Amino acid sequence: PLGLPHKHFLSVKEVAELLGCHPQAVRRLIWSGKLEAIRGGKRGLAHKMLIPIGSVLAYFIKYSSLNVEL
What is the pTM assigned to this prediction? Predict the structure, then answer.
């Protein structure tokens, strides 16, 4: 429906595309505690941040100025 892949975590880049912002803005949201993230990845990708889809949805609901009824 939203064009999201069927997975539980999104990359910083994917979240930035969904929110319509720069990846650095997503990192700032993570550092400020407004968006939950975990560090993941294999060797060489140890600093890759993964954001749970639920965290993105919670952020959108909390901070969105849209008036949406579910």
Answer: 0.73
Alpha-carbon span 46 to 41, nearest angstrom = 6
Cα separation of 31 and 50, whole Å? 13
Q: Residues in the chain, how many?
A: 70
Dihedral of the alpha carbons of 50, 55, 59, 61, in degrees to the nearest 10: 140
| Long-range CB contacts (within 8 A, 24+) of 39-46 | 40/9
Give the residue carrying structure tokens 């975990």. Answer: 38
pLDDT for 33:
93
**pLDDT at residue 1, rounded to an integer:** 44
Cα(70)–Cα(11) distance, rounded to whole angstroms?
26
| pLDDT < 50 positions in the chain | 1, 45, 70
Element spanning 19, H or E: helix 12-19
